[in-house]
Amino acid sequence: MHPAAAVCLVFGGCCSNVVFLELLARQFPGCGNIVTFSQFLFIAVEGFIFEANFGRKRPAIPMRYYLIMVAMFFTVSVVNNYALNLNIAMPLHMIFRSGSLIASMALGIIILKKRYSMSKYTSIALVSVGIFTCTFMSAKQVASDSSLNEEDGLHVFLWWLLGIAALTFALLMSARMGIFQETLYKRFGKHSKEALFYNHALPLPGFLLLAPNIYHHAVLFSQSEPFQIPVIGLTMPIMWFYLLMNVITQYVCIRGVFILTTECTSLTVTLVVTLRKFVSLIFSILYFRNPFTAWHWLGTAFVFVGTLMYTEVWNSLGPLLARWRKRPKED
């Protein structure tokens, strides 16, 4: 597949996925578990058919390593989606998750004993300042909500702090999982499709612990207003339609990123994913009218500039621009 097509899959799939997730979370903020379960089930079934060949294909990486990876992946996915139930707005959710560079660098220094250049530390500092700015301004908005009395306001604020703690935990756990994957791939080779399947199939029994919550939201979804799907004319509850589209777009997003990693350099992949997050953020703010002050914009700018600095995209663009300037001019 041409890289341009993969980029379209990433932008189309990931950006629309965020839209349907926010449509679900706005109506039922506690629906994170049913969303996570549906995504895992869909990708697991697809992988069982096309990757595992109905269970006949043996994994290249020993199962015991997948069990460790799956425990981390399941925890990260559930905690990230559940954070939306803890008064975390979607823009802050996206900005906070963009801080994965901070966690990756910190754990890389502690676990892998890595050392980085001064430009890397500077970029991480920018990302940290940006996330802190957005988080601090969001905290002020939650604490100063005029529609709540003092007791209810404190209660909401404490839940919001718990949401921030959940996102922080998920960020660190995700970085640790990335380091674990890196060591596995060095030892056994890259098997991205296989890892995608086992990361989604093995955690499915764990959702039995969340079955009451999943069933409760399934009932609520079934009671939502009917919606007629364009073109095919099928009528279904609108929340089930949002969930179906969220699952499909999540799969398109993941497949797009996977194709991109096989066709492009890691720098290009990071740049595309970063720009996708920025587009998703802008759309969330404008379409859903999420509260976003000038300070939030400043913090967002710090996050994305820091991310681009970390990937050293400027160093790659410099020679490209120099060659463009030196090209022979037509008479």
UniProtKB/TrEMBL annotation:
Residues passing through the membrane, by range: 32-53, 65-83, 95-112, 124-144, 156-175, 196-215, 227-245, 257-288, 294-317
Q: Where in the cell is it found?
A: Endomembrane system
State any single GO MF term: UDP-xylose transmembrane transporter activity
Per UniProt, which keywords does this protein have? Membrane, Sugar transport, Transmembrane, Transmembrane helix, Transport
How does it sit in the bilayer? Multi-pass membrane protein
Family membership, please give it: Belongs to the nucleotide-sugar transporter family. SLC35B subfamily.
Indicate what this protein is called per its UniProt record.
Solute carrier family 35 member B4
